[in-house]
Design a protein that fits this description.
The chain has 907 residues and is α+β, with helices and mostly antiparallel strands.
């Protein structure tokens, strides 16, 4: 085999626990000729179950590597990842280096909760995915029903490849062509699709091929292997060296090994990486390895010699990865036998944090305790075993405590000043709330003419270098944007550490000024139990402050899906098992952080006092008469040397008598709902700085003058000035298009988009009206940038007595509710037929039948996913345009080559 012609591809195996993932890996290796004998999980001789704990438990705990040759010029590095939810972080780290993924579905159980989590992660990391639906040999499995479930819960572009051989059937070709507009146009002309076109669709995540079979009985495995070889496309890599670290482990002798994928150039022994050199390079294949002198781009290897590398780190030209999505939500206290040296134990155990970064081991100095974050009980048991075997320590863990987060509900200004004798720094920060799940964003809106760029970068570095504690419980803050709006250094006395102190104190002072809220983790759950016990479960869910969808009945079993706080739901499996006599089962998936349902109770139990936290002071240090003195947080604004850039007492002919434009209202210090009430000016007034005005508008909204100007535009667009932009009228299609003969029209199937976009789908589960309004707001913003006419159609066919379609104007777009017995599909098809030819018409829907109809009538179509990408692109362009305008007048640290003013972001 000529190594120069080899294509290297890295593919990961992912599945819900007990779906048969290790069995499939064994079948793939056997079917490709890599293994001469099939191993089995139950016989404890599977090729990739290399750890004793894995063989005992029959589950995958650590990701492992096998080499899968496919043909003469394709070598696939197969990474087997853990399926149990407790080891999800190990699985997510592996996703960073995958070219393709193989997602295994248990045909007997269908799409389970953790399967949907995996699907969302694959979407986030944009990984092309092959699906194998396993255990189809079991009684009761229904291929057509399972395919429909895949299309509904995962993607409408899941297509059955099981019976596809050399030639494609007309039905298959049409289904594949429907996944891409350009391919569909070619197909309508030629009537064929090619293998290369299908491979391209798969690599672009526009098509997800599915095979049905049984890994245990090798049914369908050969066809699946042939499909992988047929449709996998090798990547092209740059000549410049780059690599991505995804795992840290120890070999049998205890040597530290850094697992990485080479993403450019070559990696060779003795090569210098920063201040370290590569000592050894190993290519693992199960438990064995081959030492090599160099690794080419695309290869996955383990190297020795890198003592400071961590998972997610980029080497060479490769950038670092973003923070993983999955994180532990429970914190445990680790206890050792009496007389143990806890500090010495802590230093030893920190080694484990290299291998499992999500553990987040911390040392509580005051209590002399070790705290660790874990995903669940199974991981806890595995960790105890690892500590006993590697460190000879008999460790125990207390019951897990909830890992809380804190955020703010209203914007606030934070001021930090640090001026002991011969030191000086002052920092003013704008703290703004972001939507749930946004993480932390950091930016600067300050000209370098007012604070040099090196000091601004230092402030941003100090903002990003740690998790800042909140002031309610001391938990880390999240879902906030922090913007530097003012700052000052001294020519002689300022040192780097001065800005660290000023920055930390500014964050704390701003949090004390703001209205803060406690966030707690929530689970999405799926409960399957006997139908007669469904009432018991629904009562329990309400008691736990959870919510659920309408139950689904399947034979004598009922399935309930919903959301609930982790604090209430985490131990529910034992209760469920008890009252269903072992027949009930539950799947949990971390669903992010939401407002704490019992905040006052939690605050009372924790009893945190931010003003007594000497490690995280809320006040500032000023200097007078040659000595520094401390000023409490609520008095800092009166002592500050700078203004924050927000103008009070501005006059304008269109001012609201109750809220002057630019006013910062006085609010209670704790539990208030706004900024500090301090009077401020900024070198001639707020409007002089466009970047601060933009921040102010984003934070507080527009003035009445701006609203009036915006309303005038809407009036001209709608042809009237009397309804304030939200009028109503009844009628058909013609009156809208005649009254507003725009050149370009976008017709949107409203409910189809709501059910297709994850954000709106989740919101609709809680409040459908809110989801509908959110969609309209998004499309209003889109219209304002694109200057097309937007018409959103909602089904109202079940509403009795609605003779005509009802037309509303929502800001700058039209909304139609169809008449009785008319669906949105019918309305859109009729509208396209009437107006196409006179106007350029595009229809946004993922309904395949409607897509065929409108394409046949000459209109263009956008799928729900493509519309989402369009909207995101518009939002990014708006941010870029604003950044470019902002930098024309003054110099700034952050250049307009990014899509926002964000210097750094933490998820």
């Amino acid at each position: 085999m000529d190594n120069k012609k080899l294509r290297y591809i890295c593919a990961g195996l992912l599945a819900h626990v007990d779906a048969g993932k290790t069995t499939l890996s064994e079948a793939l290796l056997y079917g490709s000729g890599r293994l001469r004998k099939l191993g089995r999980v139950d016989k404890k001789d599977a090729f990739l179950d290399t750890d004793a704990m894995e063989r005992e438990r029959g589950i995958t705990i650590f990701s492992k590597q096998a080499l899968l040759p496919l043909g003469d010029n394709l070598q696939v590095t197969l990474l087997d990842t853990p399926g149990h939810v407790d080891f999800s972080a190990e699985m997510e780290r592996t996703l960073q280096v995958l070219d393709y993924a193989v997602l295994l579905i248990n045909g007997a159980d269908g799409v389970q909760g953790h399967t949907e989590t995996l699907w969302k992660l694959l979407s986030r990391y944009r990984i092309p995915t092959f699906l194998f639906i396993n255990k189809m040999d079991q009684a009761g499995t229904d291929r057509a029903k399972l395919l429909l479930e895949l299309e509904t819960k995962l993607s409408e572009r899941c297509i059955d490849f099981t019976d596809i051989k050399e030639e494609y059937t007309e039905q298959f070709s049409e289904a594949a062509a429907m996944c891409d507009d350009e391919l569909l146009a070619r197909y309508l002309e030629s009537g064929t699709v090619t293998e290369e076109e299908i491979a391209a669709l798969i690599s672009e995540r526009k098509l997800f091929p599915c095979w049905f079979g049984s890994a245990l009985k090798l049914t369908g495995v050969d066809d699946f292997i042939a499909g992988l070889a047929r449709y996998m496309i090798g990547r092209s890599y740059p000549d410049t060296f780059g690599a991505k670290v995804f795992k840290i482990a120890r070999d049998a002798q205890g040597n530290r090994e850094t697992w990485l994928k080479v993403t450019g150039g070559k990696l060779s022994v003795r090569m210098q990486i920063g201040e370290e050199k590569i000592d050894r390079i190993r290519i693992y294949d199960g438990s064995s390895f081959e030492p090599v002198s160099e690794a080419e781009a695309g290869m996955v290897c383990a190297v020795q010699g890198l003592s400071h590398a961590v998972a997610g780190m980029g080497l060479g030209a490769e950038p670092d990865s973003e923070k993983p999505v999955l994180e532990p939500v429970l914190s445990y206290r680790l206890s050792l036998p009496d007389g143990s040296d806890m500090q010495a134990a802590y230093r030893k155990l920190k080694v484990l944090e290299d291998e499992e970064p999500e553990l987040s081991l911390t040392w509580n100095e005051k209590l002399s305790e070790i705290h660790v974050k874990l995903m669940g009980e199974v991981q806890t048991e595995i960790l105890k075993r690892m500590i006993a075997e590697r460190f000879r320590m008999d460790a125990e863990f207390t019951e897990g405590h909830i890992v809380y987060r804190e955020t703010i509900l209203r914007p606030a200004i934070g001021i930090g000043h640090f001026e002991p004798l011969r030191h000086y720094a002052e920092v003013h920060l704008l703290l703004e709330p972001l939507p749930r799940g946004s993480g932390m964003e950091y930016a600067t809106a300050l000209s370098t003419d007012k604070l040099p760029g090196n000091w601004q970068r230092l402030v941003l570095t100090h903002l990003m270098e740690r998790e800042h504690p909140g002031v309610l419980t001391g938990a880390p803050i999240t879902d906030m944007r922090i913007t530097l709006v003012a700052g000052r250094a001294h020519e002689k006395h300022t040192e780097g550490g001065d800005f660290r102190q000023a920055t930390y104190r500014a964050v704390r002072q701003g949090l004390m000024e703001a209205e803060c809220a406690l966030l707690e983790p929530w689970y999405e759950f799926t409960i399957e139990l006997p139908a007669e016990a469904a009432g018991h479960a629904m009562t329990d869910i309400r008691r736990m402050e959870g919510s659920f969808e309408a139950p689904e009945n399947t034979g004598d079993m009922t399935v309930i899906r919903g959301r609930a706080p982790v604090s209430e739901m985490r131990s529910y499996q034992r209760e469920l098992t008890a009252y269903t006599r072992g027949r009930g089962r539950m799947t949990l998936r971390f669903a992010g952080y939401e407002l704490c349902h019992d905040q006052e109770k939690v605050l009372s139990e924790i009893g945190y006092d931010p003003e007594r936290d000497i490690d995280n002071p809320t006040g500032s240090v000023f200097c007078a008469h040659g000595a520094g003195f401390t000023v409490p947080w609520n008095e800092v604004p009166a002592y500050a040397h700078l203004e924050s850039g927000l103008t009070e007492n501005r006059t304008d002919t269109d001012q609201d008598p109750d809220f002057t434009e630019g006013t910062v209202r006085q609010q209670p210090a704790r539990g208030g709902n706004g900024l500090s009430g301090r009077t401020a000016s900024y070198d001639g007034g707020y409007a002089a700085d466009a970047e601060l005005e933009e921040i102010f508008r984003r934070t507080f909204g527009t003035s009445k003058r701006d609203e009036a100007r915006h309303k005038g535009l809407l009036d001209r667009a709608s042809g009237s000035g009397t309804d304030g932009g939200k009028g109503k009228r009844s009628g058909g299609n013609g009156d809208i298009f005649s009254a507003d003969p725009a050149e370009n029209w976008l017709l949107v199937d409203g409910y189809n988009i709501i059910h297709a976009w994850d954000e709106l789908k989740e919101l609709a589960a809680l409040n459908f009206d809110a989801a509908r309004e959110r969609l309209l707001d998004i499309l209003s913003n889109y219209q304002g940038f694109k200057h097309c006419r937007v018409l959103v159609v909602f089904d109202a066919y079940k509403v009795p007595g609605r003779v005509n379609a009802e037309v509303e104007q929502w800001n700058n777009i039209y909304v139609i509710y169809t008449k009785q017995a008319e669906t949105a599909d019918q309305y859109i098809a009729k509208a396209v037929q009437q107006i196409n030819g006179r106007y350029n018409v595009t229809v946004a829907t993922s309904d395949r039948l409607v897509q065929l109809i409108i394409l046949g009538q000459g209109a263009l179509r956008l799928s729900a996913r493509e519309l989402y990408e369009e909207v995101e692109a518009v939002n990014a362009q708006i941010r870029r345009d604003y950044t470019e305008r902002r930098t024309k007048t003054e110099n700034y640290v952050l250049k307009p080559d990014t899509d926002s003013t964000t210097e750094g972001k933490k998820e």
